[in-house]
């Protein structure tokens, strides 16, 4: 259990995190975590689907869930006085799903509609192609969270139940709450969580083989698209690397320096000076088991070639010359403000707490994390860019992909 006191808030957020997601799936099971998450809301021995929805909404609460690569989360947010009801409701959903056959037949169609929506979205397909280029098809990191159509159409009730029994165990579960927690409310919560979740089998930690970076160029053409979605990425440290003496701090600061804000080198060059894209961004996607330094943009098919060359020139310049003082100062301040803003967001704090427990077995002090980021030197950031330009990239092109663009991307990025 995790409790985060936020006494200034009037509402409270409760989440149940399960350490299981698409990374824990075999090729045959790809997509099953997402289907289970959908079906958890379709009935328990004491509530049907409509009663589950009404139980939250009649209290004015927001009830939701999502599936990620390394975890599945069930969430509810509402008034603090309704916390006992929230605990009982989430426990019922997570532990007592009956997965009725008739509901599975209906929800299967809903998920297939969701899949079609993803497959018709150039940006979504660019990131699917990027993950496949980064990690290959043999590792779960290279497969989509939503799964494959054939799997979604095939999954049976028995398969879902078997997956839940294997993956939804106590040692893979975190119950976390953030909001106006008084001492009395916390003690009552501890007793109720023990009563509601105490019968969960202990189980063994759900583990994943390391995802080895492959790199390469993949494309996904979509008829009717007028723009080219481009995702360029490189291997980055993971949170798990920090348990072995590594650090993600330099990559996080480098990504912020390169592409956060209109004055950043990436946006200033690509958007403000060249006019090559409306949307362009950079991030260090640092997860417990995967790490990616990613640059993404949507550009015109005629401008895509110039865009690829411009990004290559920009990274090369930063690798050779290092960051400018103005960018260095901006990035450090942006990270500090972002960290403080995250402290004000209960959902963000709960997810971070769950990742900390799953990865480190403890909660990290957010101010300690910020201090590590602020301690990174300009030389360390320059070293990140030097590593990037010397490393094979994963590149994905989606939407309207000009004929020779893949060859250019391979020449620029995938042969380092």
Automatic annotation (TrEMBL):
The entry's family comment says: Belongs to the peptidase M16 family.
- Where would I find the Peptidase M16 C-terminal domain in this sequence? 155-335
Gene3D superfamilies from the UniProt entry: Metalloenzyme, LuxS/M16 peptidase-like
What name does UniProt use for this protein? Peptidase M16
Cofactor(s) essential for the protein = Zn(2+)
Q: Name one GO molecular function term.
A: metal ion binding
Q: Where is the Peptidase M16 N-terminal domain?
A: 7-146
PROSITE patterns reported in the protein's UniProt record? INSULINASE
């Amino acid at each position: 259990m995790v409790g985060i006191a936020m006494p200034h808030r009037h509402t409270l957020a409760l989440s149940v995190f399960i350490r299981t997601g698409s990374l824990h799936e075999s090729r045959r099971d790809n997509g099953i975590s997402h289907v289970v998450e959908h079906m958890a809301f379709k009935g328990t021995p004491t509530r049907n689907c409509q009663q589950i929805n009404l139980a939250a909404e009649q209290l004015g609460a927001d009830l939701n869930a999502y599936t990620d690569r390394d975890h599945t989360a069930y969430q509810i947010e509402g008034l603090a006085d309704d916390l006992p009801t929230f605990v009982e409701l989430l426990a019922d959903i997570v532990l007592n799903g009956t997965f009725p056959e008739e509901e599975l037949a209906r929800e299967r169609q809903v998920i297939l509609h969701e899949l079609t929506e993803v497959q018709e979205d150039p940006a979504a397909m660019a990131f699917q192609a990027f993950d496949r280029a980064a990690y290959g098809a043999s590792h779960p990191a290279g497969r989509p969270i939503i799964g494959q159509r054939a799997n979604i159409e095939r999954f049976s009730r028995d398969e879902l139940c078997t997956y839940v029994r294997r993956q939804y165990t106590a040692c893979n579960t975190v119950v976390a709450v953030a909001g106006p927690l008084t001492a009395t409310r916390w003690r009552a919560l501890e007793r109720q969580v023990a009563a509601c979740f105490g019968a969960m089998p202990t189980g063994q930690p759900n583990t994943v083989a390391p995802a080895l970076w492959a790199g390469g160029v993949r494309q996904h053409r979509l008829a009717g698209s007028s723009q080219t979605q481009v995702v360029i990425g490189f291997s980055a440290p993971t949170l798990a690397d920090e348990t072995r003496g590594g650090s993600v701090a330099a990559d996080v600061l480098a990504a912020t320096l390169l592409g956060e804000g209109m004055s950043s080198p990436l946006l200033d060059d690509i958007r403000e000076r060249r006019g090559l894209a409306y949307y362009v961004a950079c991030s260090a996607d640092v997860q417990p088991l995967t790490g990616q330094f990613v640059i993404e943009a949507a550009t015109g098919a005629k401008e895509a070639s110039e865009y690829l060359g411009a990004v290559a020139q920009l990274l090369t310049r930063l690798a050779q010359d290092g960051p400018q003082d103005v960018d260095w100062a901006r990035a450090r301040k942006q990270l500090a403000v972002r960290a403080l803003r995250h402290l004000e967001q209960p959902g963000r704090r709960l997810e971070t707490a769950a990742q900390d427990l799953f990865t480190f077995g403890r909660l990290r002090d957010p101010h300690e994390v910020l201090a590590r980021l602020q301690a990174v030197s300009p030389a360390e950031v320059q070293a990140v860019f030097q590593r990037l330009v010397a490393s094979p990239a994963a590149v994905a092109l989606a939407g309207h992909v000009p004929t020779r663009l893949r060859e250019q991307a391979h020449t620029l990025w995938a042969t380092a």
